[in-house]
Design a protein that fits this description.
By secondary structure, the protein is of the alpha/beta class. The protein contains 14 helices and 20 strands. Helix 13 links the parallel strand 14 and strand 15. It binds S-adenosyl-L-homocysteine, iron/sulfur cluster and FE3-S4 cluster.
Length: about 425
């Protein structure tokens, strides 16, 4: 029998990367080989993102390109998975008849069966428990693995599609997560990045039937000898419990980095966004965590041009950033999303949105550069994760999540080393052993 190939492309967040890895595992189990050459593929899966309009446009333009390849190769099956599949369902097939299967983030475990038996997906239901029970977990990484522990969101920020695409908040049981971590650890993985749309809202059940929080889980994972580093993302300010903050002070395997999106530095915008907290609440968390872990590296997300955002509101955001100082942050122009409460208003003109984004990004970049520069000639611990683009180059991460590169004759992948920082480029650090 001839070889069967599968091509998977991920869009969007790390949870999609994790889901794509699981789809690869499911199809590898059925004898498929992974290919990076789409023209070889018997099955092509686009694991899509619905967060902003641009992300969705990208999917449709890729489908357009794939159409030509598929027309020359009549046995290729095209699958649209992920959050666009959940949000737009069968409209996708109407708009792009070359799509064969549409499957949402909670039912992709059925995909091999759907393709073999032309079974209909259950993509409109949120069967998280069912899904996680039916997945296969094989590590394809060399040092650091993502691990989804929580999925979905009950927060309903007025701009966001996630509660509709991923469903209600669901936490996997402690035992399942520990078993998956041990599996990765036994294949050599040293770092686990715990994922969830609201990872710090985690409340999984332990063996004794008790509900446990994220700090409990992190503590349990840190008992696994082979795991040297633990990270988690993304957190919501209202779920930033003291136990988790204290875990940063007491657990040496928990990396000193916190991604805590705020979206805006103006209380009136936060209110319209339905974020359920104020700027003051956020600053209190920052104080608390810096109190117990002074070197914690903070990162965030910002949206500019949200409906009714005035110059004053934007000024508050800039002042807020100057006050907190982030080591890195991500910023986006507001994109009205179908089905969300904020969708009908988009009253900030494009030029203003662009000017605000550019001012905000300059400030954030300046903070990032200054932060990175402060490590020049200092010694830091780095986990090397992969080969770089140049000969003998390796890429790793510091404990503060900075990207680091080195040139070395010796193979460094999956080594944790103490290095000296010799140069800092805008977004990365160069080092020597
Ligand atoms: N769960 C996380 C983030 C989810 S989405 C949280 O609670 O913050 C990742 C980021 O995309 C968000 O933090 C937000 O900054 C951005 N985003 C979400 N919806 C958006 C929209 N409609 N327009 C622009 N940016 C958006
Ligand atoms: Fe979206 Fe808000 Fe939920 Fe984050 S907390 S996923 S921004 S609704
Ligand atoms: Fe995008 Fe879905 Fe993640 S909308 S950001 S892929 S949860």
């Amino acid at each position: 029998m001839s070889e069967k190939y599968i091509y998977i492309k991920s869009y969007g967040c790390q949870m999609n990367v994790y889901d794509s890895d699981r789809m690869k595992d499911l199809f590898s189990d059925k004898g498929y080989k992974i290919t990076k050459d789409i023209s070889k593929a018997n099955i092509t899966i686009l694991n899509t993102c619905h967060i902003r309009e641009k992300a969705v446009e990208k999917v449709y333009s890729d489908i357009g390109r794939i159409k030509k390849i598929k027309n020359n190769k009549n046995n290729m099956k095209l699958v649209v998975a992920g959050c666009v599949a959940q949000a737009e369902g069968n409209e996708i097939k109407k708009r792009s008849p070359i799509v064969d299967f549409v499957v949402g983030p909670q039912s992709y475990h059925e995909l091999p069966d759907m393709i073999d038996n032309l079974k209909k997906p259950l993509s409109s239901e949120f069967l998280q428990n069912e899904k996680f029970k039916n997945l296969i977990y094989n590590s394809s990484k060399q040092s650091s693995e993502f691990l989804s522990i929580q999925e979905g969101c009950d927060k309903f920020c007025s701009f966001c599609v996630v509660p509709y695409t991923r469903g209600p908040e669901f936490s996997r049981p402690i035992e399942d997560i520990i078993n998956e971590t041990k599996k990765y650890a036994s294949s050599g993985i040293k770092e686990i990045i715990l994922l969830g749309q609201n990872v710090n809202a985690y409340h999984g059940i332990s063996k004794d039937g008790k509900s446990r929080n994220l700090s409990y889980l992190i503590n349990k994972i840190s008992e696994i000898e082979e795991i040297k580093r633990i990270r988690y993302m993304t957190s919501h300010p209202i779920d930033m419990e003291d136990t988790l903050i204290n875990e940063h002070a007491t657990n040496s395997k928990l990396m000193p980095f916190l991604h805590l999106p705020i979206q805006s530095g103006s209380d009136s915008i936060l209110k319209k966004m339905n974020r359920k907290h104020t700027v003051e609440d956020y600053l209190k968390i920052v104080d608390k965590i810096r109190n117990v872990k002074p070197d914690i590296a903070l990162s965030s997300d910002f949206i500019v041009g949200f409906p009714d955002e005035s110059d004053k509101d934007f000024e508050y955001t800039m002042k807020f950033i100057e006050k907190v100082k982030f080591v890195i942050a991500y910023s986006f122009i507001y994109s009205p999303r179908p089905g969300t409460p904020a969708q009908h208003k988009d009253n900030i003109d494009n030029a203003t949105k662009k000017a605000r984004l550019s001012a905000l990004q300059s400030l954030l970049t300046e903070q990032q550069i200054n932060y990175n520069k402060s490590f020049l000639n200092k010694d830091m611990e780095v986990l090397f994760e992969k080969e770089g683009r140049h000969k003998n180059q390796y890429i790793g991460r510091t404990i503060y999540n900075q990207s680091t590169f080195i040139t070395s004759e010796e193979k460094l992948i999956n080594k944790i080393l103490q290095v000296r920082i010799t140069n800092s480029t805008n977004f990365a650090l160069e080092c020597q052993i």
